Amino acid sequence: MPQAPAPNLIGTSVPRIDGPLKTSGTAKYTSDHNFPEMLYGVPVQATIGKGKIKSMDVAEAEKMRGVVRIYRYGNAPKLYRPNGQDENAHVDETRPPLEDEVIYYNGQYVAMVVAETFEQAKAAANKVHVEYASETPNVALDLSDGFNDKMKEISKRGDVDAGFANAAVKVDYTYSTPIETHNPIELHSTVAVWDGEKFKLYETTQSIMNHQAAMAQMLGVPKENVQIVMKFLGSGFGGKLWPWTHDVLAAAAARDLNRPVKVVIDRRMMFSNVGHRPRTQQRIRLGATAEGKLNCLQHDYVSDTSILDEVSEDCGEATPYIYSTPNLRIRGEMVVRNVGTPTAMRGPGAVPGLYALESGMDELAIALKVDPVQLRLMNEPEIDESNGLPFSSRHLKECLTTGAEKFGWSKRNPAVGSMKRGDLTLGWGVACASWIAMRMPCKTSLMLNDDGSARIACATQDIGTGTYTIFAQVVNAKTGVPVEKIQVVLGDSSLPPGPVSGGSWVTGTVIPSIANAADNAEKQLIDLAVNGTRSPYHGRDPKELAFSEGRIHLASEPASSGIAFDELLRKGSLRFIQADGDSMASFADPNANKHSLHSYGAQFAEVEWDPGIARLRVSRVVSVIDVGKVLNPRPARNQVEGAIVMGIGMAMFEETHYDPRNARPVNSNLADYIMTTCADCPEIDVTFLDYPDKVLNEFGARGVGEIGLAGVAAAITAAVYHATGVRIRNLPIRIEDLISGSSNKQHFA
Ligand code: MOS
Q1: Which end of the chain is more exposed for a tag (fewer CB within 10 A), N or C?
Q2: d(CA 141, CA 49)
Q3: Co-location of 445 and 409 in the same domain
Q4: In this predicted model, what pLDDT tens digit does every residue of 345-356 receive, in sequence order?
């Protein structure tokens, strides 16, 4: 007789299990770790953007109180490049710090002072005198030198040039997005402990496993000699995916001096040494029939990278599959600038890419005189036309129609400047969102204890998004153990290896691994039930038994008729059973491989434009998100709301400015780098469609960290056009553009 499904907490707003630790201030973040005899490292930054160190005078600094060592080129411990053999040892800035006297970017570390206290190290760092042979750096904003015949082809079908030539209505515009810097409140930090043989490194990282492998290679030691710990992260947004140069400097200093070393970089270093979202310039060429059927889509993009490393912003990520069109070509290229190495920022590639593509779609809708929601509905593909695969679960049309309904889109008068609220002009805009869905390989370890509690362990991490709670919910659903009796242990590389907290894939990844561990636990419990001499099921056929709601019972009887697993363990004098879980990546899964896996969304934005005082405000955002089954609506909503706030920053405020004379980030602090504050936040209305995507895992959850940012900036600039008639093709929106009425001004220094 089939069992009625046990009630579980999947899809309910279980409060964060780590909430009390955070609200009581007892959650230990990386820089909260202190050790006896611990030293402090403070890096010294280059003040030029390109050139060489001529000389460095450390005599004064070395004599200062508390100074233990000043590392620089010539006396720095030997460090190594990642050898490229292990894809799980990724580093974006690959040059070992202090390797030579060449300056590649402003802010590059040229020395690190190690002292007894932070203040002593900081004071001495200010007294390290460096003379440079300076050259003129290149931080040119115009990236059009990258648009050339050598552009790499990313995706192609049909013939875009023929499609464009034959189109009844066409648009062809170039869009740009600026360098944006990650500004999590928690500064990057590391506390390195060396015990004479092994490293224990407390790190601010979104991937303890990658960090372990990468640090081992850069320190030149076997991986098993490096342990990484990260229990709580004050956000990362991609900037903490991979190790940065301060990490290896601290570890090498700890080994060299045989004392723990703490390095917490400052906000200014956050702007030069730990990555940023690169600048992009993107050409979108669209052609359509007179009715609005797309017949060509061309997306060419260029992003800037550092002298040292090639890190590309893959703006064409969502372009191949989002719309139906017979002719498509996507090409990408990088150009080199004297900036630090870029890195992934929330929704890398797709987010700036969709700003350009969705802006182009809005311009096409206007050229066609077709409603922008209708234009998208009209160009919905049946399958993923880039590879011929069916979508695992795609509800983009419903995102658009539900969003239009909630927003009141039918009341929109398309005429520019026609909608008013008192003295204010209203603008309404829409854009679509998409993001990858993926699973990575994952191992977990589940213990069921004789007191009825459970423990789940995995070397992944909670970066502030709610991963601890998701683990507890899934264990609860699979075993029946109440959430308050489940201990979730993450954030330590000595645990079974789990995924990077990136790509929005942790939730989707851990479900099958935990399910596999629970299945293995069930086998062990049934084995114990039929073999244990004191078990009520001693001697039964294992096939007759089942494990549900925390009880072993006859499969033909309800769970309540059976024996609780903890009682069974006590009868067998066992403290616990321990079961391993293992699951594979979606790209290795023959079924997942037969599908195109993505999340979708529709963003609707309202702006208020006050022409009297040239004031622009985002007043309302309606977001409808299709991320499969939502395991826990509260933190999921929190992710999307936060992403929308970040999207307002992308549209309106965020831009890192570099001084062309010395390539120095000028606004490298939280006062001058403008971000969305509470006062800038509109009403935000988030809806989840909640269709399970069973191709990805049994609950159908895809993960929700990045999708909420996609489309937001394009919806806002579409709304700005609707209000003002000014098309913003270069982010962020500037008041001077709105006043001048100029639609295509390039802000090139
Ligand atoms: Mo995300 S940029 O993959 O941390």
Answers
A1: N
A2: 15
A3: no
A4: 999 999 999 999
